[in-house]
Amino acid sequence: MVVEPRSCTKDLRPPVYPPATGEMLRMDANTNLYGANPVVERVLAAGGARDLNQYPSGTSDALRSAIAREFEVAPEEVIVGCGSDEVLETIAKAFLDPGDVVATPSPSFVMYAFYGRIHLGTVVEVPLREGFALDVDALLSTRAKITFVATPNNPTGNAFDASGIDRLVKQARGLVVIDEAYGAFCGQEYARTLRRDNVIVVRTFSKSHGLAGLRVGFGIGPRGVIDRLMAVKTPFTVGTMTERIAIAALADGAYVEESRRMILTEKPWLTERLRSLGLGPRPTDANFMLVDVGRPARPLVEALRKRDILVRDMSDFRGLANHFRVTIGRREHNERLVEALRAELGR
Ligand SMILES: Cc1ncc(COP(=O)(O)O)c(C=O)c1O
Question: Is the pLDDT of residue 22 over 70?
Answer without folding.
Answer: no
